[in-house]
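Dear colleague,

Thank you for sharing your sequence with our group. We've completed the structure prediction you requested, and as agreed, I am returning the results in plain text so they can be pasted directly into your records. Please verify that the sequence below matches your submission; if there's any discrepancy, let me know and we will rerun it promptly.
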Amino acid sequence: MGFVKRIVIGTLIGLWITASVAAEVAKTQVKGFDEQVQDIKKNILGIASELNQLEEQLLFPSSTQLAVFVALAPGDNLRLDALTIKIDGKDATHYIYSAKELEALQHGGIQRLYTGNIETGEHTLDLDLIGKSSSNKDYQYSASYKFVKGIKGAKLIEITLSGSGSKIESLTD
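Please find the predicted structure tokens below.
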């Protein structure tokens, strides 16, 4: 009987050691697999980024591209609720601001509000905004600006909003 017990105990110890070694090998293999998955994720994100850039270049070639950016004047307490932009009388975009987006603008953020294609030549940008003034009164503002889209490169326009009006600045010529 003593001999059988020793064989059973020896076999159990052997199985336990084998299981421990197998578990360690499995952990190493899983760790290697996780690293491979992370590398694949990085590659996929890089490819997606490149595809997005290519798509933007194809859809909005720089020779016809117009991009409109919006910022709030530093220190201005305008609470922007909604903004509408028309280009040459056609709706370009309408945007309703959340509290977080407004806070970002109030802290110096700049938002790309519109990207599109336009022909070279003179154009009109119409701006309508709705918000609240620093005294918490309803505030509405409308303005119309003329700009020229040249042949070379994209046309970038920045609109700086404040409770006393707005300023449009052409960032490119």
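Summary note from our side: The beta strands are 65-72, 79-87, 90-96, 111-117, 121-132, 138-149, 155-162, 165-170.

Kind regards,
the structure core
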